[in-house]
Amino acid sequence: MIKCNIDVLNKNEVMKGIFMQLLKNKILTDGIVNDEEILKVDNFLNHQIDVSLLNEIGKEFKRRFADAKVDKILTVEASGIAIAAIASQYFDNAPVVFAKKQESRNLDSEKYSSKVYSFTKAREYDIMVSKRYLSEGENILVVDDFLAKGGAALGMIDLIEQAGANLVGVGIVIEKSYQDGSAVLKERGVRLESLARIASLKDKMIRFL
Ligand code: 5GP
């Protein structure tokens, strides 16, 4: 019995190692450093989408949150949607809700909203979710493409709190660890799982932690 548990543990660690190397290689091969703050990955994550890589990302999120009960996955438009939708298949097809950034006649007037400062766009914007799609007591996993200063993640956590739902944790594909988002989330006691962690983009070189 003990041997069996150890085997499962080892297998997970091996799979995690293989996946992390795959993701790092992809970032090194296709990532473009714009300046010390912005990494462009629109060849596989933000514009053109590498579906098989997203499948592996979904499986890895499931491995990291295997012990958690996840009723819904929450993300923010636009880049988070594909990541969340593919990941959902590994969480028993949990519904995916994406926070909208723009008011529209399609959006219910009964909604939760939160203000987010985007340092990539250098402006503040609202994120909104209809009250119909986040409910009290639901267990919500937040996923997003990047974690930088934590504004987007904190905004989504605020929506979850307004709804009286439970935050399971935050799953991030690429964390830029030299910005303060991860520290801010950890200070709040948030369970954070980042699949790749970048130490620096200095001199246009991608260095991992
Ligand atoms: P934060 O809110 O944590 O400061 O930034 C996270 C959000 O900004 C993500 O939703 C992501 O869309 C965007 N973002 C932050 N840094 C980067 C980056 O280096 N590259 C790209 N493509 N997006 C980023």
Task: Give a quick precis of the structure.
The chain is 35% helix and 29% strand. With 209 residues, it is an alpha/beta fold. Strand 3, helix 3 and strand 4 form a beta-alpha-beta unit.
- Overall pLDDT confidence: 94
Q: Bound compounds, please?
A: guanosine-5'-monophosphate
Give the low-pLDDT segments: none
Distance between the termini: 35 Å
Structural class comes to alpha/beta
Characterization of this structure:
The chain has 209 residues and is an alpha/beta fold. 35% of the residues lie in helices and 29% in strands. The protein is built from five helices and ten strands. It has helices at 2-30, 51-64, 79-88, 151-163, 181-187; strands at residues 32-33, 39-40, 72-76, 96-99, 111-118, 123-130, 139-147, 166-176, 192-200, 207-208. The chain has a six-stranded mixed β-sheet with strand order 4-3-7-8-9-10, sandwiched between helices. The protein has a two-stranded antiparallel sheet with strand order 1-2. The longest helix has 29 residues, at 2-30. 33% of the residues are buried. The mean pLDDT is 94.
Task: Identify the notable features of this structure and list them briefly.
209 residues, alpha/beta, 6-stranded mixed β-sheet, two-stranded antiparallel ribbon, 5 helices, globular, binds guanosine-5'-monophosphate
